[in-house]
Amino acid sequence: MLIIEYIRQLSYPIYYTVLTAALLLLTFWIARRFAMRKMKRVVMKAEHNYQQQIVALQMQLSGKVSMLESMVEKLKLSNQELNRLSEIRSKFMSIVAHDLRQPLTSIQGFTSVLMMDSPQGGGNNEQMALNNILKATDNMNQLMADLMDISMIESGKFKMDFKNFNFNQLLNDVFTLQQVNAQKKGIFLTKYEYPNDVTVFADRFRISQVLNNLLGNAIKFSPQGGRIEIRYFVQNGSLVCHIGDEGPGIAYDEQSKIFQKFHQSDKDRSGRKQGWGLGLSIAQEIVNAHNGEIGVDSPGLGQGALFWFRIPMEPTAYSA
Ligand SMILES: Nc1ncnc2c1ncn2[C@@H]1O[C@H](COP(=O)(O)OP(=O)(O)OP(=O)(O)O)[C@@H](O)[C@H]1O
Ligand SMILES: [Mg+2]
Q1: Residue 241: half-sphere exposure toward Cβ, Cα within 13 Å
Q2: Exposure pattern of 66-99 as b/e (b: 16+ CB <10 Å)?
Q3: Ligand nearest to the Cα of 149, by number
Q4: Is 251 helix (H, G, I), strand (E, B) or coil?
Q5: What is the pLDDT of residues 260-299, one digit of tens each?
Q6: Could you tell which of 280, 286, 301 is best to mutate to test the pocket of ligand 1, judged by most ligand atoms within 8 Å of the CB?
Q7: Which atom of ligand 1 is nearest to the CA of 248?
Q8: What is the pLDDT of residue 76?
Q9: 149 C-beta closer than 6 A to ligand 1
Q10: What span, in angstroms and rounded, lies between the C-alpha atoms of 167 and 208?
Q11: Pick from 116, 211, 202: which is nearest to 165 by CA?
């Protein structure tokens, strides 16, 4: 009241100025409240919309999750079916391979008997035909053996029989066997002996399989009159074996592929028909089962190849 009395006593211009200021303040206060309320309503509406969007998204997500769950379920089922089919295929392969070997052995036996009975002499048609039958049955026998190995690998039944044996002797046996094939192509095989006896703890039969395939490949892919060198040595508790040839070599991008099942390099079509592309994949499985390593170095096509493998010599390598 005192303030109003005081204002009334002021001169008119001041009185109006103060009144206008008071009115302005009041208007500002009302506008502010009004704006605040409006803002609150806008925020509440936005919040509501936001909540609705979240609910919609949640519904969409749960739809997607259940879709994914049913897809995972379907995948599981088809995976089980695939495993079952793969098992059947492996079993079928091993049964066929096993059962075909018996008649093959009979064919081989009878052919050998017929060969002995047939008149000897160069250019004899009967001898040539019998020889071809023997070669074909040999190849089929090899294929059956490889297919049986592959089916054992695929079913996880490819077991190693580890024993101590003399590697020098094993290499001599393989060398003598392969020398016959090398001589037919006029290929010169050289074996560099390690000065001491090398005893390794490994599967003798399986390691002979690796050697036969590597040496067999070197002979198969080398040109007439080529040279092949085999050397082995001991390095950091491992046996290392090198087989080098002067054959067609292997292109850089092919070098890892040739260890895959059924892979045969397109570039050496001459050797393509003599095999199935299984030897190196089986050799790799064998070397891996020995905690070892296998590989090839080749400077490129036309420049020869050096295949190598290393396996630990001591039983401790397999105890882990
Ligand atoms: N010494 C080599 N020189 C050149 N190419 C080679 C040599 N060894 C292997 N290869 C290439 O690697 C491929 C795969 O070899 P792998 O031993 O697995 O099969 P393969 O000898 O053709 O048939 P299989 O061993 O089943 O009788 C060969 O087909 C060949 O293209
Ligand atoms: Mg081979």
Answers
A1: 26
A2: eeeeeeeeeeeeeeeeeeeeeeeebeebbeebee
A3: 1
A4: coil
A5: 998 888 645 454 557 889 999 999 999 999 999 999 999 9
A6: 280
A7: 4
A8: 96
A9: no
A10: 10
A11: 202
